[in-house]
Specification:
- The chain is an alpha+beta fold and about 140 residues long.
- It has one domain: Trna Endonuclease, Chain: A, domain 1 (3-Layer(aba) Sandwich).
- It contains four helices and five strands; from the N terminus they run H-E-E-E-E-E-H-H-H.
- Strands 1-2-3-4-5 form a five-stranded mixed β-sheet.
- The protein is globular and about 40 Å long.
Length: about 140
């Protein structure tokens, strides 16, 4: 059976969930995926906080397409490249810095090789930076 885009998307979600769990994140998965929420990160320090997240993946970063308009508040967007086996993260307040264009048919998230190289050297490629931002450490 040829994999559908839904199966491929679910495989990227599964990989990212595994990376997050291996990195010490406490994650929860929704039963129904009708709100664009692929999972929830629970942070239990002095008080409990929850962060919705969405996963987008592709064989390469250049093949990932998404519309960032639906990312809101503290929601986290994870981008995963199978070829690079690398994960990037962003929150709403970070997106306009890198993805400013108005969405077209395929969205406004495009990563060319120059942007990929910049992002892989940035704080957005290190999950410890995300842990600091959301109060895990």
């Amino acid at each position: 059976m040829k994999p559908t885009r839904f199966r491929i998307g679910k495989s990227y979600e599964t990989i990212v969930n595994g990376i997050l769990m291996q990195s010490g994140f406490d994650i929860y998965l929704p039963i129904v995926d009708d709100k664009g929420i692929d999972g929830v990160i629970r942070v239990d320090k002095k008080s409990v906080k929850h962060y919705d997240f969405q996963v987008k993946g592709g064989k390469t970063f250049a093949r990932i397409r998404a519309n960032t308009d639906w990312i809101y508040g503290d929601m986290i967007l994870f981008l995963y490249s199978l070829e690079d086996n690398k994960l990037l993260w962003f929150q709403y307040k970070d997106l306009n810095r890198y993805f400013k264009d108005k969405p077209g048919d395929w969205g406004n998230l495009f990563i060319n090789s120059n942007l990929k190289n910049r992002l892989l050297k940035s704080k957005f490629s290190n999950l410890n930076n995300l842990k600091k931002r959301i109060g895990m450490i």
